[in-house]
Amino acid sequence: MSLSCAFGGVLSIRFSVSLKAFSSAFSWVSDMVNPWDPLPLPPTAEPIWKQIALGIGLVVSEWESVEYELGILCSHFCGGTLYPFKEYGKGRIFRERTAVIARFAEKYFVRICDQQKEGEFDRLIKASIGFSDRRNEVVHGLILDAKNVTFFQNTPLVIDKLKAHQYVILPHLYAKGWDHELRKPPPYAYNFSQMRQLAERMEVLHQSIKTFKESLPE
Asked: Superkingdom of this entry's organism (predicted)?
Protein backbone atom coordinates (compact mmCIF):
# COMPACT_ATOMS: atom_id res chain seq x y z
CA MET A 1 0.00 0.00 0.00
CA SER A 2 1.19 3.48 -0.76
CA LEU A 3 -0.37 6.61 0.60
CA SER A 4 0.86 9.99 -0.49
CA CYS A 5 -0.61 13.32 0.48
CA ALA A 6 0.25 16.98 0.63
CA PHE A 7 -1.40 19.74 2.62
CA GLY A 8 -3.90 21.41 0.34
CA GLY A 9 -3.27 18.74 -2.32
CA VAL A 10 -4.90 15.51 -3.38
CA LEU A 11 -4.86 12.32 -1.35
CA SER A 12 -3.92 9.33 -3.47
CA ILE A 13 -4.31 5.81 -2.15
CA ARG A 14 -3.42 2.85 -4.34
CA PHE A 15 -4.24 -0.38 -2.66
CA SER A 16 -4.93 -4.01 -3.44
CA VAL A 17 -5.89 -6.61 -0.84
CA SER A 18 -7.75 -9.90 -1.00
CA LEU A 19 -10.32 -11.00 1.53
CA LYS A 20 -8.02 -13.82 2.63
CA ALA A 21 -5.47 -11.16 3.51
CA PHE A 22 -7.96 -9.17 5.61
CA SER A 23 -6.54 -10.41 8.92
CA SER A 24 -2.92 -10.51 7.81
CA ALA A 25 -3.21 -6.96 6.47
CA PHE A 26 -3.41 -5.87 10.09
CA SER A 27 -0.67 -8.19 11.35
CA TRP A 28 1.67 -5.26 11.97
CA VAL A 29 -0.69 -3.94 14.63
CA SER A 30 1.01 -5.67 17.54
CA ASP A 31 -0.30 -3.66 20.47
CA MET A 32 -4.01 -4.21 19.83
CA VAL A 33 -6.44 -7.09 19.90
CA ASN A 34 -8.31 -5.61 16.92
CA PRO A 35 -7.22 -2.95 14.40
CA TRP A 36 -10.28 -0.85 15.30
CA ASP A 37 -9.46 -0.77 19.01
CA PRO A 38 -8.92 2.72 20.52
CA LEU A 39 -5.48 4.14 19.85
CA PRO A 40 -3.20 5.20 22.71
CA LEU A 41 -2.93 8.90 23.48
CA PRO A 42 -0.65 10.57 20.92
CA PRO A 43 3.03 11.16 21.83
CA THR A 44 3.16 14.39 19.81
CA ALA A 45 0.82 17.17 18.74
CA GLU A 46 0.55 19.31 15.61
CA PRO A 47 1.84 22.91 15.41
CA ILE A 48 -0.75 23.82 12.75
CA TRP A 49 -4.47 23.16 13.27
CA LYS A 50 -4.96 22.53 9.54
CA GLN A 51 -2.98 19.32 9.90
CA ILE A 52 -5.65 18.05 12.29
CA ALA A 53 -8.38 19.18 9.88
CA LEU A 54 -6.66 17.23 7.10
CA GLY A 55 -6.57 14.12 9.29
CA ILE A 56 -10.30 14.46 9.94
CA GLY A 57 -10.86 14.65 6.18
CA LEU A 58 -8.88 11.46 5.59
CA VAL A 59 -10.92 9.53 8.15
CA VAL A 60 -14.27 10.85 6.92
CA SER A 61 -13.42 10.12 3.29
CA GLU A 62 -12.32 6.55 3.98
CA TRP A 63 -15.32 5.90 6.19
CA GLU A 64 -17.68 7.02 3.43
CA SER A 65 -15.94 4.51 1.14
CA VAL A 66 -16.72 1.79 3.70
CA GLU A 67 -20.38 2.86 3.80
CA TYR A 68 -20.58 2.92 0.01
CA GLU A 69 -19.17 -0.59 -0.34
CA LEU A 70 -21.59 -1.87 2.31
CA GLY A 71 -24.48 -0.32 0.36
CA ILE A 72 -23.27 -2.01 -2.84
CA LEU A 73 -22.95 -5.30 -0.95
CA CYS A 74 -26.50 -4.89 0.37
CA SER A 75 -27.71 -4.44 -3.21
CA HIS A 76 -25.76 -7.50 -4.37
CA PHE A 77 -27.61 -9.67 -1.85
CA CYS A 78 -30.79 -8.94 -3.85
CA GLY A 79 -29.45 -9.36 -7.36
CA GLY A 80 -28.04 -5.87 -7.78
CA THR A 81 -31.32 -3.95 -7.53
CA LEU A 82 -31.34 -0.42 -6.11
CA TYR A 83 -34.04 -1.09 -3.51
CA PRO A 84 -31.68 -2.64 -0.89
CA PHE A 85 -29.15 0.16 -1.44
CA LYS A 86 -31.84 2.74 -0.72
CA GLU A 87 -33.08 0.78 2.27
CA TYR A 88 -29.54 0.67 3.65
CA GLY A 89 -29.29 4.44 3.34
CA LYS A 90 -32.44 5.00 5.39
CA GLY A 91 -30.71 4.06 8.64
CA ARG A 92 -30.06 7.17 10.68
CA ILE A 93 -27.08 5.71 12.53
CA PHE A 94 -24.62 3.05 11.47
CA ARG A 95 -26.00 0.31 13.72
CA GLU A 96 -29.40 0.78 12.10
CA ARG A 97 -27.78 0.40 8.67
CA THR A 98 -25.95 -2.77 9.73
CA ALA A 99 -29.30 -4.19 10.83
CA VAL A 100 -30.63 -3.55 7.31
CA ILE A 101 -27.71 -5.26 5.55
CA ALA A 102 -27.85 -8.16 8.03
CA ARG A 103 -31.51 -8.69 7.14
CA PHE A 104 -30.75 -8.91 3.41
CA ALA A 105 -27.67 -11.06 4.07
CA GLU A 106 -29.72 -13.56 6.06
CA LYS A 107 -32.13 -14.06 3.14
CA TYR A 108 -29.21 -14.37 0.72
CA PHE A 109 -27.44 -17.06 2.75
CA VAL A 110 -30.66 -19.02 3.12
CA ARG A 111 -30.82 -19.12 -0.68
CA ILE A 112 -27.08 -19.66 -1.19
CA CYS A 113 -25.88 -21.75 1.73
CA ASP A 114 -22.20 -21.02 2.34
CA GLN A 115 -21.16 -20.95 5.98
CA GLN A 116 -17.64 -19.80 5.17
CA LYS A 117 -18.87 -16.76 3.27
CA GLU A 118 -21.45 -16.06 5.95
CA GLY A 119 -18.69 -16.11 8.57
CA GLU A 120 -16.60 -13.72 6.47
CA PHE A 121 -19.57 -11.38 6.23
CA ASP A 122 -20.02 -11.44 10.01
CA ARG A 123 -16.34 -10.57 10.52
CA LEU A 124 -16.55 -7.66 8.09
CA ILE A 125 -19.62 -6.28 9.86
CA LYS A 126 -17.88 -6.65 13.23
CA ALA A 127 -14.89 -4.70 11.89
CA SER A 128 -17.18 -2.05 10.38
CA ILE A 129 -18.97 -1.51 13.70
CA GLY A 130 -15.62 -1.20 15.47
CA PHE A 131 -14.31 1.37 12.99
CA SER A 132 -17.58 3.31 13.17
CA ASP A 133 -16.81 4.03 16.83
CA ARG A 134 -13.40 5.46 15.87
CA ARG A 135 -15.01 7.49 13.09
CA ASN A 136 -17.51 8.94 15.56
CA GLU A 137 -14.71 10.01 17.90
CA VAL A 138 -13.00 11.89 15.09
CA VAL A 139 -16.03 13.65 13.62
CA HIS A 140 -17.51 14.61 17.00
CA GLY A 141 -14.25 15.84 18.51
CA LEU A 142 -12.82 19.33 18.83
CA ILE A 143 -9.52 20.66 17.50
CA LEU A 144 -7.88 22.04 20.64
CA ASP A 145 -4.48 23.28 21.72
CA ALA A 146 -3.22 20.66 24.17
CA LYS A 147 -1.42 23.38 26.13
CA ASN A 148 -4.83 24.56 27.33
CA VAL A 149 -5.91 21.13 28.55
CA THR A 150 -5.07 20.43 32.20
CA PHE A 151 -4.12 16.77 31.77
CA PHE A 152 -1.56 17.48 29.04
CA GLN A 153 0.19 20.40 30.71
CA ASN A 154 2.75 18.18 32.42
CA THR A 155 3.05 15.43 29.82
CA PRO A 156 5.59 14.91 27.01
CA LEU A 157 2.90 15.95 24.53
CA VAL A 158 3.31 19.64 25.42
CA ILE A 159 6.71 19.59 27.11
CA ASP A 160 8.23 21.58 24.22
CA LYS A 161 7.41 25.06 25.43
CA LEU A 162 9.02 26.60 22.34
CA LYS A 163 6.09 25.56 20.18
CA ALA A 164 3.39 28.19 20.15
CA HIS A 165 0.61 25.66 19.58
CA GLN A 166 0.23 21.90 19.91
CA TYR A 167 -3.07 20.79 18.41
CA VAL A 168 -4.88 17.48 18.81
CA ILE A 169 -8.47 16.42 18.43
CA LEU A 170 -10.21 15.82 21.77
CA PRO A 171 -13.69 14.89 23.00
CA HIS A 172 -16.35 17.56 23.06
CA LEU A 173 -17.22 19.19 26.37
CA TYR A 174 -20.32 17.00 26.69
CA ALA A 175 -18.27 13.76 26.74
CA LYS A 176 -19.40 11.73 29.74
CA GLY A 177 -17.13 11.78 32.78
CA TRP A 178 -14.49 14.11 31.35
CA ASP A 179 -13.88 17.77 30.67
CA HIS A 180 -10.86 19.86 29.74
CA GLU A 181 -10.24 21.01 33.31
CA LEU A 182 -9.81 17.52 34.75
CA ARG A 183 -6.40 16.05 35.47
CA LYS A 184 -7.39 12.58 34.33
CA PRO A 185 -6.69 11.50 30.73
CA PRO A 186 -9.34 12.05 28.05
CA PRO A 187 -11.18 9.05 26.56
CA TYR A 188 -9.27 9.65 23.33
CA ALA A 189 -7.04 12.10 21.48
CA TYR A 190 -5.69 12.04 17.93
CA ASN A 191 -2.85 13.75 16.10
CA PHE A 192 -2.51 13.77 12.30
CA SER A 193 -0.34 10.66 12.14
CA GLN A 194 -2.87 8.62 14.10
CA MET A 195 -5.78 9.75 11.95
CA ARG A 196 -3.83 8.88 8.81
CA GLN A 197 -3.14 5.47 10.33
CA LEU A 198 -6.83 5.05 11.09
CA ALA A 199 -7.74 6.04 7.51
CA GLU A 200 -5.28 3.47 6.14
CA ARG A 201 -6.91 0.73 8.21
CA MET A 202 -10.35 1.79 6.97
CA GLU A 203 -8.97 1.53 3.44
CA VAL A 204 -8.09 -2.11 4.11
CA LEU A 205 -11.64 -2.66 5.32
CA HIS A 206 -13.36 -1.02 2.37
CA GLN A 207 -11.22 -2.93 -0.12
CA SER A 208 -11.96 -6.16 1.77
CA ILE A 209 -15.72 -5.54 1.57
CA LYS A 210 -15.39 -4.92 -2.17
CA THR A 211 -13.35 -8.10 -2.67
CA PHE A 212 -15.86 -10.08 -0.62
CA LYS A 213 -18.76 -8.85 -2.77
CA GLU A 214 -16.89 -9.81 -5.95
CA SER A 215 -16.35 -13.32 -4.58
CA LEU A 216 -20.07 -13.98 -4.07
CA PRO A 217 -22.30 -15.73 -6.59
CA GLU A 218 -25.35 -13.86 -7.82
From this structure: Bacteria
